[in-house]
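Hi R.,

Here are the chain sequences for the assembly we discussed:
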Amino acid sequence: EAQVTQNPRYLITVTGKKLTVTCSQNMNHEYMSWYRQDPGLGLRQIYYSMNVEVTDKGDVPEGYKVSRKEKRNFPLILESPSPNQTSLYFCASSPSAGPRETQYFGPGTRLLVL
Amino acid sequence: AQKITQTQPGMFVQEKEAVTLDCTYDTSDPSYGLFWYKQPSSGEMIFLIYQGSYDQQNATEGRYSLNFQKARKSANLVISASQLGDSAMYFCAMREGASNFGNEKLTFGTGTRLTIIP
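And here is the predicted structure of the full complex:
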């Protein structure tokens, strides 16, 4: 089944404790992206990747890191999480970066930083 | 200025009735895509339907259709014969081309919460 998977789905952590949210897609998509969703602010892009080893900042990259060593995987790293990073996180992928390409989303990761 | 505007924060619709969710957009790119996503209470984002800026016909996918009026910059989602399972948050989103070359990210509206009443 074609899908985007994320792990973990739910995470409660404490301030400063490094964490990684994994994202994997099995559709051979070139473009991958991370979004966060917050009440009243909608979905905002954190980072994106055009292809392996090609990543760049989105609208809200502060406090996050990413890497794209393999085409299928695009992990999101929070080196020192803070409470303002409590959010619902989505990974998404599309065949390429074109405006006509549909982005398919993972199931989401709910993160609570205490 | 908002790139995607959804003016209906919430809607209540009787089961089996048709419902229209409004979406207007703002772009100067000639090439763009418009997308609708459904977010049920469980949280996942489910792709529903896509309309390209150069498409001559309105998109349809089962019970979903998109009323695309390019001159008015509107892309309203129409759900026919609504079902209880349609209760969810609905987001309109746009992916622009030339002005975002290299990162054609999705820009989302604030969403409409649709509740279907039995």
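The two ends of chain B are 38 Å apart (CA to CA). The mean pLDDT of chain B is 93.

Let me know if anything looks off.

Best,
T.
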